[in-house]
C-alpha cells in the first residue's frame, strides 16, 4: 500500500527553466494493477518515478506500508528501490553489448548473492517469459517485444513485489500488447502489484486493471477502481 | 553455470602475479651467487686500483668519468659540445677542485 | 562472503562492459604496459648498475692525485710521491701507470694498465686482457698473441697470459694489463713519471685533512676521493637527467593525453548507462566501485604486465634495449650480467604514478553522474 500526501514536484528549482510537474497530489495505490493515464505532460512519469523512489518530492510525503519513505537518505532509498520495485522503462534501457542474461542479472549484482543462485533465478524468469533460448544473445538482436520481455525479466529478477512500467505498450502492436497484458495478469496472479502509465485505451479497458488514475496538468482528475 | 566474464581476466592477472613471484624467487635464489661475484669484482678493483666501470669505452674521457677533467670534452674547441651518447647517461663530475677563490686582502698587496 | 560476491559481480559487469570495446581496451592496456615497461626497465637497469658500482668501487683507492697542466690531466712527477707519502695518516701512496690505447684494427679503445698487486703482474712480453679484447680482435684459437701497433710499420707482440672472466666484465672488459717495463717502453713513458698517484689512508675520517695537507703540498694537483667516484656513479641514469628519462617522460605525457581522452570524456552513452544502473537498484557506491575496478584492472594490469616483462628484459635477457643506448659509439661493450636489484621505493612510486592518476581519471567524472537522482533515465 503506497500513499501520497500533498506531493508536488518541481524541477530545476530557482532556475529560469523551473517546471512544476506535480501539484499537491493525494493518492492511495492499493495492491493490484494501477494505471496512470493522461496526455503527455500531465505528470504521469514524474508520479511514477516518485512512487518508485527514483526521485524525491519537493513537498509532501510518500509512505510505503505506513513508513515515510520520501525523506529517507539516498542509501536507504536505493536499498528500498532494489528490494521493493522493479522498473520497465519506456525505452527499456537494456545495456547494449551485454547478453540478455547479463542484463537480467544486473539488478542483483550489488546484493552479494551467489552467482549460481541469481543465474538460476534469471533463467527461470526468462523461461517464463519465453526468452530462454535467447539468454546468451546480445540484447541488440532482440525484437521489440522480446526487448520488453527482457526488461520485465530484469525488473523482476530480485522478486520485487511492485513492478513499475512507463508506457509499456507505446512501441508494441496489438498482438504484443495482448501478450504484455497476459504477463501483467500472470504477475498479478503471483500477488505482485503493477503500476503503469499509459494513454492506450486497450490497456485501460483490459481485464487485469484494478484502478485507473486519470491525470491532467500535474493534478489527479479522477480515480476509478 | 556459464563462464563468468571476469574469470579469464582474473586468471591472466594470477598468471602475471605467479610470474612476478617466480622473478622474486629468482632474485632471491641468485643473490648469494651474485654477492660472490660482486666480491670477486671488488677484489679485482682493490688489486688493480680501478676507479670506474668499463661501461663507456667510446671516448677516452668517458671511460673514466670519475677521473675525467671537465676540459677534455672541449679540448679541441670550446664550442665543440660534448657529443658522445654516453654523455646523456652520466653527469660530469661535480667536484672539480676548489670552487671558490681563496685569498685574503693582504695577498693582493 | 556477500561482500565478496558483490565485488565479484561488479567485477564481472566491469569486464563484460570493457569487453564490448575489446580491441580498444586491450590496445590501451598494451600502450600503458609499454610505458611502464620502459620506465621499469630503466629503473631496474639503473638501480642494478648503481648497486654494482657501489659494491665494487668500494675497493677503489681512497684518493687519486692528478697533475693538472693547461687545464688537463698530465703525467705526475715521481718526486711528488714522497710529499704525499710523508703526510700523517697516509697508509700507502703509489704511482699508477695507465693510459689508453686506440686499436686501429678493431677501432676499440683499450685501457692499458700496470697492476699494483704483484699476482696480477704478467711476465715480460705477456699481457692479461679483459673479456672483450679477444672478442673484438676475433681470436680464433687459444693462445693467439695480441699484436699492438702504435703506428704504421710497428708491431709489438704480447702473449696472453690470462683472460679475465666475464664475471668481472663490467669493471675489466677493456683492460690490457702489462708489467711496468713493457708499459714504459710501449708508451715511451720516461722513468720518474706516473699517470697519477693512488693513496690509501689509515682512517677514512681523516681523508679531508689529508686532502687539505696534500693540496698545500701540491697546489696544482686535483684530488679525486672515493666519495667523488661514488657520487659520479650514483648519478648514472639519474631520474632527473638522461635520454631514457626524457623518452619515458614523453611517452608518459602522450599516454596521459590518451588516458585523459579515454577516461574523462564521459560520453552520453556512458552517462546513460550509469543512470540505468542506478535506476535498476545500484547505489552510488556500487557505480563507483565498478569504475574503480575498471581503472584498477586497466592500470594495475598494465603495471603488473609492464614490470614483469621489464624484469625479464633486464635480468634474464640482459637488457638488450639499453645495450645499444649504453654502447653508444663504443666498440667495446662488456658482456655482463646484472644482479637483480629492485628499489622498492622507486617501484612504489611508479605504481602510484601509473595507477592513481588513471583510476582517478576513471572515477572522478563518474562521481557527479552517479550521485544524481536516477529518474533522469525516465525522461
TrEMBL record, chain A:
InterPro entries: AAA+_ATPase (IPR003593), ABC_transporter-like_ATP-bd (IPR003439), ABC_transpr_LolD-like (IPR015854), MacB-like_ATP-bd (IPR017911), P-loop_NTPase (IPR027417). One of its GO terms (molecular function) is transmembrane transporter activity. It comes from the Bacteria. The keyword Nucleus does not apply. Keywords: ATP-binding, Nucleotide-binding, Transport. One of its GO terms (cellular component) is plasma membrane. PROSITE patterns: ABC_TRANSPORTER_2. Residues 2-225 form the ABC transporter domain. The keyword Membrane does not apply. This is Putative ABC transport system ATP-binding protein.
TrEMBL record, chain B:
It comes from the Bacteria. Keywords: Signal. Residues 1-20 form the signal peptide. This is Uncharacterized protein. It comes from Rhodobacter viridis. The lineage of its organism: Bacteria, Pseudomonadati, Pseudomonadota, Alphaproteobacteria, Rhodobacterales.
Automatic annotation (TrEMBL), chain C:
Residues 246-368 form the ABC3 transporter permease C-terminal domain. It comes from the Bacteria. The keyword Cell division does not apply. Coiled coil: none annotated. Its main location: membrane. It is found in: Cell membrane. One of its GO terms (biological process) is lipoprotein localization to outer membrane. GO terms for cellular component: plasma membrane protein complex. It is a multi-pass membrane protein. The chain crosses the membrane at residues 26-46, 242-260, 302-326, 347-367. InterPro entries: ABC3_permease_C, Lipoprotein-release_system. The keyword Heme does not apply. Keywords: Cell membrane, Membrane, Transmembrane, Transmembrane helix. Belongs to the ABC-4 integral membrane protein family. LolC/E subfamily. This is FtsX-like permease family protein. The lineage of its organism: Bacteria, Pseudomonadati, Pseudomonadota, Alphaproteobacteria, Rhodobacterales.
Amino acid at each position: 500500500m503506497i500513499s501520497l500526501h500533498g506531493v508536488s514536484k518541481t524541477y530545476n528549482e530557482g532556475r529560469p527553466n523551473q517546471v512544476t510537474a506535480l501539484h499537491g497530489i493525494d493518492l492511495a495505490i492499493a495492491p493490484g494493477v494501477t494505471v496512470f493515464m493522461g496526455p503527455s505532460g500531465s505528470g504521469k512519469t514524474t508520479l511514477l518515478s516518485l512512487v518508485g523512489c527514483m526521485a524525491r518530492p519537493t513537498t509532501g510525503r510518500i509512505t510505503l506500508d505506513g513508513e515515510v519513505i520520501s525523506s529517507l537518505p539516498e542509501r536507504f532509498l536505493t536499498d528500498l528501490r532494489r528490494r521493493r520495485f522493479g522498473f520497465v522503462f519506456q525505452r527499456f534501457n537494456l545495456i547494449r553489448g551485454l547478453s540478455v542474461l547479463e542484463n537480467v542479472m544486473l539488478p542483483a549484482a550489488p546484493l552479494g548473492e551467489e552467482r549460481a543462485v541469481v543465474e538460476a533465478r534469471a533463467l527461470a524468469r526468462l523461461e517464463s517469459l519465453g526468452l530462454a533460448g535467447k539468454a546468451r544473445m546480445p540484447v541488440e538482436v532482440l525484437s521489440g517485444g522480446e526487448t520488453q520481455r527482457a526488461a520485465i525479466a530484469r525488473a523482476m529478477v530480485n522478486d520485487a513485489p511492485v513492478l513499475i512500467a512507463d508506457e509499456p505498450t507505446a512501441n508494441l502492436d496489438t498482438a504484443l500488447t495482448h501478450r504484455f497484458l497476459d504477463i501483467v495478469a500472470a504477475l498479478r496472479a503471483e500477488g505482485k502489484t503493477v503500476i503503469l502509465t499509459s494513454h492506450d485505451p486497450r490497456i485501460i479497458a483490459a481485464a487485469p486493471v484494478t484502478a485507473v488514475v486519470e491525470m491532467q496538468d500535474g493534478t489527479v482528475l479522477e480515480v476509478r477502481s | 553455470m556459464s563462464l563468468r566474464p571476469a574469470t579469464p581476466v582474473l586468471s591472466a592477472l594470477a598468471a602475471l602475479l605467479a610470474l612476478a613471484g617466480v622473478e622474486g624467487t629468482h632474485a632471491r635464489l641468485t643473490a648469494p651467487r651474485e654477492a660472490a661475484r660482486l666480491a670477486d669484482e671488488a677484489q679485482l678493483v682493490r688489486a688493480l686500483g680501478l676507479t670506474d666501470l668499463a661501461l663507456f669505452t667510446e671516448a677516452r674521457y668517458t671511460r673514466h668519468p670519475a677521473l675525467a677533467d671537465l676540459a677534455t670534452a672541449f679540448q679541441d674547441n670550446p664550442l665543440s659540445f660534448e657529443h658522445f651518447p654516453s654523455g646523456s647517461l652520466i653527469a660530469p663530475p661535480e667536484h672539480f677542485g676548489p670552487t671558490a677563490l681563496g685569498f685574503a686582502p693582504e695577498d693582493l698587496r | 562472503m556477500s561482500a565478496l560476491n558483490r565485488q565479484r559481480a561488479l567485477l564481472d559487469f566491469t569486464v563484460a562492459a570493457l569487453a564490448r570495446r575489446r580491441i580498444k581496451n586491450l590496445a590501451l592496456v598494451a600502450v600503458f604496459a609499454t610505458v611502464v615497461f620502459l620506465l621499469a626497465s630503466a629503473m631496474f637497469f639503473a638501480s642494478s648498475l648503481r648497486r654494482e658500482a657501489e659494491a665494487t668501487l668500494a675497493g677503489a683507492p681512497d684518493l687519486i692525485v692528478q697533475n693538472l697542466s693547461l687545464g688537463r690531466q698530465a703525467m705526475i712527477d715521481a718526486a711528488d710521491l714522497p710529499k704525499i707519502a710523508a703526510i700523517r695518516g697516509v697508509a700507502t701512496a703509489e704511482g699508477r701507470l695507465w693510459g689508453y690505447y686506440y686499436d686501429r684494427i678493431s677501432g676499440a679503445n683499450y685501457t692499458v694498465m700496470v697492476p699494483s698487486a704483484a699476482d696480477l703482474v704478467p711476465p715480460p712480453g705477456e699481457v692479461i686482457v679483459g673479456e672483450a679484447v679477444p672478442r673484438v680482435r676475433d681470436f680464433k684459437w687459444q693462445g693467439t698473441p695480441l699484436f699492438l701497433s702504435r703506428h704504421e710499420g710497428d708491431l709489438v707482440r704480447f702473449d696472453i697470459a690470462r683472460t679475465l672472466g666475464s664475471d668481472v666484465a663490467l669493471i675489466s672488459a677493456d683492460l690490457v694489463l702489462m708489467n711496468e717495463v713493457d708499459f714504459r717502453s710501449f708508451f715511451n713513458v720516461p722513468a720518474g713519471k706516473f699517470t697519477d698517484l693512488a693513496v690509501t689512508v689509515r682512517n677514512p675520517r681523516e681523508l679531508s685533512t689529508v686532502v687539505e695537507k696534500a693540496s698545500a703540498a701540491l697546489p696544482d694537483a686535483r684530488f679525486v676521493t672515493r666519495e667523488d667516484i661514488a657520487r659520479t656513479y650514483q648519478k648514472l641514469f639519474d631520474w632527473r637527467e638522461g635520454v631514457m628519462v626524457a623518452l619515458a617522460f614523453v611517452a608518459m605525457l602522450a599516454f596521459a593525453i590518451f588516458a585523459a581522452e579515454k577516461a574523462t570524456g564521459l560520453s552520453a552513452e556512458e552517462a546513460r548507462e550509469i543512470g540505468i544502473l542506478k535506476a535498476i537498484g545500484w547505489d552510488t557506491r556500487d557505480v563507483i566501485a565498478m569504475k574503480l575496478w575498471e581503472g584498477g584492472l586497466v592500470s594495475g594490469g598494465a603495471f603488473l604486465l609492464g614490470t614483469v616483462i621489464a624484469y625479464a628484459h633486464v635480468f634474464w635477457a640482459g637488457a638488450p634495449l639499453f645495450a645499444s643506448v649504453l654502447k653508444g659509439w663504443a666498440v667495446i661493450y662488456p658482456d655482463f650480467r646484472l644482479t637483480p636489484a629492485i628499489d622498492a621505493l622507486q617501484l612504489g612510486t611508479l605504481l602510484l604514478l601509473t595507477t592513481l592518476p588513471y583510476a582517478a581519471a576513471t572515477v572522478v567524472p563518474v562521481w557527479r553522474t552517479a550521485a544524481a537522482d536516477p529518474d533522469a533515465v525516465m525522461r
